[in-house]
Amino acid sequence: MWRLGRYRNQWAAVTGMGPSRKRRALGSDRADAERTIHRLNNPKPGHVTVQWLWSQYTDEKQGRAVIETMKHTAKALMPVFGHHDPETITVEQCREYTARRRAQGRADGTIHTELGHLRTVLCWGVKRRHITAASHIERPAKPDPKDRHLTREEARQLLDGATAPHVRLAIILMLGTAARVRAILDLTWDRCDFDRGLIKLKDDDDKTPRKGRAIVPMNDMVRAALTEAREGALSGHVIEWAGKPVLSLKKALGTAAKNAGLEGISPHVLRHTSAVWMAEARISMDEIAQYLGHRDSRVTTYVYARFSPDYLRVAANVLDLGVVQMNQRALRI
After folding, report:
1. Alpha-carbon distances, residue 123 vs 26, 54, 131 (angstroms)
2. Is a pLDDT exceeding 70 seen at residue 300?
3. If we measure between CA atoms, which residue out of 296, 305, 268, 285 comes closest to residue 178?
4. pLDDT tens digits for 158-177?
5. Which of 9, 37, 199, 333 makes the best surface tag, with the fewest CB within 10 Å?
6. How far is CA 158 from the centre of its chain?
């Protein structure tokens, strides 16, 4: 087995001990060196399968948020596609998979994601020259974005239902910053600038590729909650329990929603709620995009423009026959 070592100020693949030791220089990039070590210890088989390709992809992308999701999608995909040749998967097999998952009660959005992960792995295999071509993966249409968002009264009820202080703080932060739940759980006190009233959701030392994380201002609600929490902080993480970082809020948020008598509540609903409230207040799509960490405001416009009171209002007035007739009479006068 090869292991990672150092040789002449560079990373190296090392095998054996003492006089029988062998070394291969791998350059100065540790991530590249670790991938090479993995390939050396897991040589390409004579017949490449989807299962082998999937394991190679997840090992290379280790640390990315999507890999945690792929651990779950693999449980559904691998029993069906794992033994297949990545180049010979048919449209009929994809349709059979979709029908089977629907029969099991899975929504089209879930199936779309599962088959999307399969497609990603196959395309990656082509780029890495493990296979020469990727099969076409047909999947159900991506569902429209969910419209579930909280009214302000529902938000107050949810806060009242959060009996644990760290859950209440997390809800306030998700509503007050429009951040993804992972960004809130990763937030540390050194990125909360009380002097300037800013929260830096992105950790510059974290090199893991992540979805956009913004720098957002503290509103009065957020500042008050953070100030109170900082006084009793036991660790560097803003959201903590017994001095340790919190890994998930799914169960705790579900309990708070149940206490409040609310249904369909998830961390994404809170982020979606924040964006809807801003759109309803006529905040520009560009500003909302910055809050959400969207790199392209067209995505923001597609999802949230319809919540603005001014949505297509000018265009609608142009199509008003009464307005047209009034304008024509005014011109004749």
Report:
1. 26, 11, 9
2. yes
3. 268
4. 999 999 999 999 999 999 99
5. 333
6. 23
Q: Given the DSSP bridges, would you call strands 10-15 and 3-7 parallel, antiparallel or unpaired?
A: antiparallel
Distances (CA, A) of 92 to 131, 134, 137, 242, 303: 21, 16, 10, 52, 33
3-state SS assignment for residue 198: strand
Residue 324 scores a pLDDT above 80:
no
Q: For 176-229, what is each residue's pLDDT tens digit?
A: 999 999 999 999 999 999 999 999 999 888 776 677 888 999 999 999 999 999
* Amino acid found at 251: K
CB distance 300 to 289 below 8 Å: yes
Q: CA 329 to CA 239: how far, in whole Å?
A: 64
Instruction: Answer yes or no: is pLDDT of 103 > 60.
Output: yes
What domains are there in the chain, each with its CATH number? 24-127 (1.10.150), 152-307 (1.10.443.10)
Please indicate, yes or no, whether the overall pTM of this predicted structure exceeds 0.70: no
Taken as a whole, the chain contains a residue count of 333
If we measure between CA atoms, which residue out of 204, 198, 195, 171 comes closest to residue 185? 171
Given a cut of 70, whether residue 329 has pLDDT beyond it is: no
Q: What angle do CA 191, 193, 196 make, to 5 degrees?
A: 145
* End-to-end CA, the chain: 92
Residue type, 322: G
For 20, 155, 218, 220, the CA distances from 282, given in Å and listed in that order, are 71, 20, 20, 20
pLDDT averaged over every residue in the chain: 89
pLDDT at 45: 65
Range with the largest mean pLDDT of 37-41, 150-154, 312-316: 150-154
Q: CA 58, CA 115: separation in Å to the nearest integer?
A: 15
CA dist 272 and 266 (Å) reads 10
- Integer Cα distance of 199 and 188 in angstroms: 10
Give the type of residue at 33: A
Least Cα distance to 275 among 253, 259, 291 occurs for 291
pLDDT score, position 333: 58
Residue 12 has a CB neighbour count (10 Å cut-off) of 20
SS3 240: strand
